[in-house]
Write a structure and sequence with these properties.
2 domains, 0% strand, MetI-like fold
Length: 334
């Protein structure tokens, strides 16, 4: 009996050991299956680049998307008129239809010499957008160049460039515009006056961007990737253009959007005061100026309301886009 009990006990022990092995194998299979599921989920997970994250955060802000839609609609209308519209109607004088209210033939009425106000507003939009784009391009190029060189080299180069920046920043814009306009007078053509206005806005608006880029470069130039580039013998110009300035491009985009809105508003203000583009070349500013007497303000709103609304919508939409870009680029925003 003892031998039988021992054999029975051994067989039961063997069965228990086999059951434990089976349970361990099953558990390991479950772990492997779970790990496989996790790895498949990780593999299927989409990887977002910084640019994709910025776009996702931007399009989550409904007010910024609204601004983008408004600005894109206005820009598309101006481009379509440029391609398919009749630009001559903006300059054609027809006194038989002078001061006509809006109708099927003249969607926004006519001015005091019979010119189509819709065509003039579309053509004025082309000039105003051109002023904004070119002036901001000058601002960005000068700001990145001076800010990048000043922040990278430091020392006496930084001191000289920052003193120049402070001098330009201290120029009073409006008195300077009045002085230049008085000096030029009627001795220049409308296109030359337009170039002067664009240059004046662009060359006086870069100091703020240059100071911001300088501050970013001062913190970036001591990082490891810059030291590694220097150790490899990379030229300073390449380090600035390929390694440092691209790291500030997000701030430049935000500054450029807000700067474009400011340039359009500045041009409109100068033209309204008679210091900008001559009335022969329509802009939104001088269109408002043409209808600014008391009789037109009370009885002919089609002369000044449409360009005023166009300026408001354009500047508002660009500012909304700039705010959305700033929030999307800021890593602390949600």
């Amino acid at each position: 009996m003892d031998s039988k009990d021992k054999n029975t006990k051994k067989s039961s022990d063997i069965l228990e050991i086999k059951e434990e092995h089976i349970e361990q194998a099953a558990a390991s299979n479950r772990v492997d299956e779970n790990a496989l599921e996790i790895s498949e989920a990780e593999a299927n997970q989409k990887i977002y680049t910084p640019g994709m994250l910025i776009r996702r955060k931007f399009f989550k802000r409904k007010i910024a998307v609204f601004g983008l839609i408004v600005f894109s609609t206005m820009l598309l209308a101006i481009i379509l008129f440029r391609i398919f519209g009749n630009a001559e109607s903006a300059m054609r004088i027809n006194r038989a239809f002078r001061n006509a209210p809006p109708d099927a033939n003249f969607w926004l009425g006519t001015d005091n010499v019979g010119r189509d106000m819709f065509a003039r507003m579309m053509q004025g939009g082309q000039v105003s957008m051109l002023v904004g784009v070119v002036a901001v391009s000058i601002q960005v190029l000068m700001g990145m160049l001076i800010g990048g060189v000043s922040g990278f080299y430091g020392g006496w180069i930084d001191n000289i460039l920052m003193r120049i920046t402070e001098i330009v920043q201290s120029f009073p814009f409006t008195p300077l515009a009045i002085t230049i306009s008085a000096i030029l007078g009627s001795r220049v053509t409308a296109n030359q006056k337009l170039i002067v206005v664009i240059s004046l806005i662009g060359f006086l608006s870069w100091p703020g961007l240059a100071r911001m880029i300088r501050g970013q470069i001062l913190s970036l130039r001591e990082m490891e990737f810059v030291q590694a580039a220097r150790a490899l013998g990379v030229r300073d110009a390449r380090i600035i253009s390929r390694h440092l300035l691209p790291n500030t491009i997000a701030y430049v985009i935000v500054n450029a959007t807000i700067g474009m809105a400011g340039a359009i508003l500045t041009e409109a203000s100068l033209s309204f005061l008679g210091l900008g583009v001559p009335p022969s070349t329509p802009t939104w500013g001088n269109l408002i100026n043409a209808g600014s007497d008391m009789y037109n303000l009370q009885n002919r709103p089609w002369l000044w309301v449409p360009p005023g609304v166009a300026i408001f919508l354009t500047v508002m939409s660009i500012n909304l886009i700039g705010d959305g870009m700033r929030d999307a680029i800021d890593p602390k925003s949600r």
